[in-house]
Amino acid sequence: MKVDRNQFLEDGYVVLRNVIPADELDPLRASYEILVERQKAIWARERKPDDPPGGEWERSAQPRLLLHRSPLADLIDEDTASAVEIWLHENTQGASSELLGVSDAAVTEMMLMCNPVQDRGPAHWHRDLYPPYGAPLQGYVDDIIEGGPRYVQWNLCLYDDDVLWVIPGSHARLNTDRENELLRTSRHIPFPSGVQTHLNAGDGVAYILPILHWGSNYSTKMRRTIHGGFSTFTQYENQSYMKYLSASAQVTFEHWIQRSEQMITHTESMLRAAIEKDAAAYHTTLEKLHPGRGEKGKMLSTVYLSKIAKRVYDCKHPDFDNLPQETRDSMIRSHPITLQWGLPLANRFTFEEAQILWNRFKPVDARIQSEVEDAAPGYENRPSRYHFNEMPVNFSIEDFIAGWMQS
Question: Could you tell me which CATH class the domain 5-250 is placed in?
Answer without folding.
Answer: mainly beta
